Amino acid sequence: MRNGNTRQEPSDDRGNAILSTLPLSRPVAVELPGVRQRRVAVFAGIESTTSAHRISVGVVHLDALADFHRLWLFGTPSVRAMQARSLAAVMPKGALVVGADLNTWHGATEPAPTFLRGLFADGHLMADESTPLHRSLDYLFFRSMSGLKATYRIIPNAYGSDHYPLVGRLSS
Predict the structure, then answer these.
(1) Which one of 34, 142, 148, 151 has the lowest number of neighbouring Cβ atoms within 10 Å?
(2) Which string of DSSP letters, residue by residue, matches 7-49?
(3) Within a domain: residue 9?
(4) Is residue 3, in this structure, part of any structural domain at all?
(5) How many domains are there within the chain?
(6) What CATH number corresponds to the domain at position 140?
(7) What is the maximum alpha-carbon separation in the chain?
């Protein structure tokens, strides 16, 4: 997503990243439809010589606010739903773990997480009390993990953010 738009504050890209101690392959960056800021979802495969499991990972960050025509906060569930639906065709097939800041200010029953849970029908994990107001903002989704158990924990330090980091773990 872009920030800065003046001569004193020039624009540059900022946004999502996948950090891994294992080599990544097949990276894909997908621009999401949006109305306020540029949003890009990132996916890649994890290459492991010690595991028989082939897993892809992804990072998604949906819009927090809509434009003023959609009443900023109250119109955003439809914008986030549109962005979530656009991911269906571009997500890697097979085993997949996606970390997502869905910005679901109105809770986990908004259309975006509901749609994504359907894409991860064989299992999903979600942190639904990750902020002081118990809003559901951050999610971990796990798909097709035969032989692997998926768990997560919430790190209790928000590091100055309104989000608490989620750490997912796959184990046999």
Answers:
(1) 151
(2) SSS--EE-------SS-EEEEEEEEEP-SSS-EEEEEEEEP-S
(3) no
(4) no
(5) 1
(6) 3.60.10.10
(7) 54
Residue 99 DSSP class: E
Q: What is the pLDDT of residues 103-125, one digit of tens each?
A: 776 677 788 888 888 888 765 55
One-letter amino acid at 7 equals R
Burial of 41 (0-12, 13-18, 19+ CB in 10 A): buried
Residue 35 has what pLDDT? Answer: 67
Whole-model pTM: value is 0.79
DSSP3 helix / strand / coil % (the chain, rounded to 5): 15, 35, 50
pLDDT per position as a tens digit, 132-161: 555 677 888 888 767 778 888 888 888 887
Note down the domain range covering 33: 16-171
58 is a domain residue: yes
* Tokens coding 157: 């330090």
Q: How far apart are CA 145 and CA 95, in angstroms?
A: 6
